[in-house]
Amino acid sequence: MSPQSHQILSGDLRALARAATAIENRSPQADHLLRELFPHTGRATIIGITGAPGAGKSTLVDKIAHALRQENKSVGIIAVDPTSPYTGGAILGDRIRMLDHHADPQVFIRSMATRGWLGGVAAATTDMAVLLDAAGRDVVLIETVGVGQDEVEIAKLAGVTVVVLVPGMGDDVQAIKAGIMEIADVFVINKADQPEPDRLEREIKAMQSLSTRKDGWVPPIVRTVAVDGQGIAETLAAVRSFLAHNDGKDRAVANWSQRLREMLRERLLHRFPDLDFHAAAEDIVSKRTDPYTIIDAWLNR
């Protein structure tokens, strides 16, 4: 085992930070490091927090982390921020909103840019979760970017998915039901002190009445006012209730089956950094070739 792996397993925060950077940058040594660390995973609870922009996900994650620390649990936070389509940079604002934890060595926060990855999560999020799990974090919180119904990818990464909604956002449930409504293991109505939380809860229950899950679980609905710390204990209780209900091998196998598909797709693109997609597109538009011939040629390389 490499010295860096030993350092991470022994709780060295600088080694953990260096490894996180290597994973996000897809450095050559990252895969080797993850292979060494993977046997030490499987202990962390991975909680995904997703929902529409402005729902208060960052505040909710911050308060959940506080509650977990009061239980003396170590926490890893992966906060995924949107990437600018023009500069390639990201605001990484979640670190600013979670500064209260900066002096706590038992809370490790990593902001990641999506870098164009769809589904509300960054391409390296699975690997980052593996890293934090191996590093001994009891709970890993993954906050998605907040892009609405496309954020279904989080369900493939998290052991439990919390969907955060807020009252008064127009036709709340109808606007997002095609995507993230189906992946919720727990619903959180945040900012429940605003008008019409009852209406939103009725809409969620109406949606739930239309279909049943294969596992028989009916996602509970928790009301919170995260900025005041209200409902945080109830949210954690709902999360733990789901985990107790679904504490089996089948869900883990299903999750890893989905993760492997995404990892393979992402690594295939990474293995061919010199592919000229623009030149190939010009050839296709000009009818000099077809997309099927190009794909076969790339795969045969």
Order of helices and strands: HHHEHEHEHEHEHEHEHHHH
CATH architecture assignment name of the largest domain: 3-Layer(aba) Sandwich
Main sheet overview = 7 strands, parallel
Please state the average pLDDT score. Answer: 82
* Parts with pLDDT < 50 across at least 5 consecutive residues: 83-94, 115-120
Any idea what the CATH superfamily of the largest domain is called?
A: P-loop containing nucleotide triphosphate hydrolases
Overall structural domain count:
3
Helix content: 40-55%
In short:
This protein is α/β, with parallel strands linked by helices. It is built from 13 helices and 7 strands.
Give a quick set of tags describing it.
3 domains; 7 strands; Rossmann fold; 301 residues; alpha/beta; 13 helices; seven-stranded parallel sheet; globular
Topology summary:
Layout: H1 3-9, H2 13-24, H3 28-37, E1 45-51, H4 57-70, E2 75-81, H5 93-97, E3 107-113, H6 125-134, E4 139-143, H7 154-157, E5 160-165, H8 172-176, E6 186-189, H9 197-209, E7 221-223, H10 232-245, H11 249-271, H12 277-285, H13 291-300
Parallel strand pairs: 1-4, 1-5, 2-3, 2-4, 5-6, 6-7
Helix pairs in contact: 1-2, 2-6, 4-10
Could you characterize what this model shows?
This protein is of the alpha/beta class. The protein has 3 domains: 1-39, no CATH class; 41-247, Rossmann fold, CATH 3.40.50.300; 250-301, no CATH class. It has helices at 3-9, 13-24, 28-37, 57-70, 93-97, 125-134, 154-157, 172-176, 197-209, 232-245, 249-271, 277-285, 291-300; strands at residues 45-51, 75-81, 107-113, 139-143, 160-165, 186-189, 221-223. It has a 7-stranded parallel sheet with strand order 3-2-4-1-5-6-7, with helices on both faces. α1 packs across α2. The longest helix has 23 residues, at 249-271.
